[in-house]
Amino acid sequence: MAGSAESTEVRRKPFDTSGAGAAIERWTLRSGPIEAVVLTLGATLHAVTAPDRSGSRAQVLLSSDDLGAVLGPARHYGTTVGRYANRIAGSRITLDGEDHRLAPTGNGVTLHGGPDGFASRIWQAEEIPGGVRLQLHSPDGDQGFPGALDVSVSYTLAAATLSIDYRAVTTRPTVVNLTNHAYFNLAGEGSGDVLGHLLTLDADRYTPADERQIPLGPYEPVAGTPFDFTTARPVGKGINDDHPQLRGPGGYDHNWVLRARPADGTPARAAFLEDPGSGRTLEVLTTEPGVQVYTANNFQGAVTGARGVPYGPYAGIALETQHHPDSPHQPSYPSTVLRPGEEFRSTTVLRFGVS
Asked: Where is the active site (predicted)?
């Protein structure tokens, strides 16, 4: 990657000095014109500042510095989601013939690891070359998941490239699916919706879902549907089409099946996002087999960002690199099982630029 760890400035300070949030740390990584802010609460990517084509810098993630919002309606903004990102049907899994009931989150599913998932934990942080490593111990039975899990998430910044590296080991067979839940608006947070952003996805198939957003099973081709982003098209071009998969969620909240990843574990491109107005671009590369695209369909202004603008529908777009939702119940999907003696490894790269 361009740049070097030596050229990255790393700073640490409390997130909130009022007392209530004093235990939460804010880590700031700075390399050239790019700045990334990471919180120890939820191992969260809290903010990214990037220049436009004229060099003007703006914060391009939806976020809030209000502690009440961070603990409330913005609790998943930019967080590391686990132990299992996305949805597991029936709030139960079976591993080696043993049934495990998971903590439910409603609607007949366990979403994002349960009601007290990794997003709500304070992680332990340490500086590493070019960034910060955050670590968490999840005990056996946490939210119903078997096995004690030790997890680390490392954020490193070099020039315009932010790398997110996930690692995990377990004491018992379990399932693991980690992602980052940042919402991007490349025009700058609070600048309106992202419907005019141009999106490309390196995916020829997706996983249609039921009303709970649980995959129905077989992959379906995107060709000829509003889910075809194989070439760049505006996010909003087909978002209101009368398609059965769009009526329920009111927009995109689906998993795309990425083209085959390199066997050597090198991250490959998953998505490319561009804001034509500012010229800012984001290239997403990953080792993961899928990406969940969520267009903030249900946002109703509960969170107000730094510009003082409440976030409404389509205020940002999440590009959550992941294994597929409900994989424990879908034998044809790539496995999310992690066993003792193995190490879960996953890398996602965010590369910022201008057109």
From this structure: 181 (proton donor), 320 (proton acceptor)
